[in-house]
Amino acid sequence: MIIKAYGLNWDPKLIYGYKGLVARKCFKGDVRNKDKHFEIDFWKTRGIYTLFRNFEIVYVGKVTDMNLGDRIRNHFNNIGDHWDTFSFFSFTKVNFATRNVSTVTDSFHSNRSTVIKTLEAILINTAEPYLNKQEARFPDAFRAIQYDYTNDKSITDIYKKLEKIEKKLFPSKRKNK
User: Fold this and answer.
1) Could you give the CA distance from residue 31 to residue 94 in angstroms, rounded to a whole number?
2) Domain assignment of residue 156, yes or no
3) 20 in a domain, yes or no?
4) Structural domain count, the chain
5) Is residue 174 situated within a structural domain?
6) DSSP secondary structure letter of residue 63
7) What CA–CA distance (Å, rounded) separates 138 from 6?
8) What domain range includes position 124?
9) pLDDT confidence of residue 63
10) What pLDDT score does 172 carry?
11) Does residue 96 lie within any of the structural domains?
């Protein structure tokens, strides 16, 4: 698949800061891979992104020569009053060992069907048409859930707690009594 990772409806204030909040200058998100959670920094990713205001698309852009983090920061500093969330679709591979993304987008060859499915998934995930009943998926791509540094608990902590509850409610091996 063309898309290697993606993040939907991220809040730029959690990255660049706002009144009373220190900017982190990182694009860290929780990525799940083989039932493990990894904190991955997407600052250096390359790909395409959309800016939203009240869940309505106001801008679509691409990142080919600079980092996504720098590009979104430019928008935040210059036109930040005109948008409140963004989504990104990364063409760069996630490196779980270094917990970031590759700085270079590998060249790829894809067939027509894969390109069509990818474009459809991007459009569905950004435009969210009401007749499409479910979120489109990117096979083999990792979804990144934004960390909220303003709270004591990270999304990973919440996921871990939910997984424990799920295991209690739905044990994989039931004991016969």
Assistant:
1) 9
2) no
3) yes
4) 1
5) no
6) E
7) 9
8) 5-151
9) 93
10) 66
11) yes
Cβ(119)–Cβ(112) below 8 Å: no
Other C-beta atoms closer than 10 Å to the C-beta of 138 total 20
Rg (CA), the chain: 18
Q: Which helix (H) or strand (E) holds 119?
A: helix 112-127
Q: What is the pLDDT of residue 4?
A: 92
d(C-alpha 109, C-alpha 91), whole Å: 13
Distance separating alpha carbons of residues 64 and 2, to the nearest angstrom:
15
pLDDT at 20: 47
Rounded distance between C-alpha atoms, residue 91 and residue 27, angstroms: 15
Amino acid at 92: T
CA–CA distance, 134 with 120 (Å, rounded to integer)? 13
Question: Which residue carries 């060992």 as its tokens?
Answer: 97
Average pLDDT across each block of 10 residues of the chain; the chain has 177 residues. List them in order.
91 74 70 91 93 95 91 90 94 90 71 87 88 82 82 66 81 56
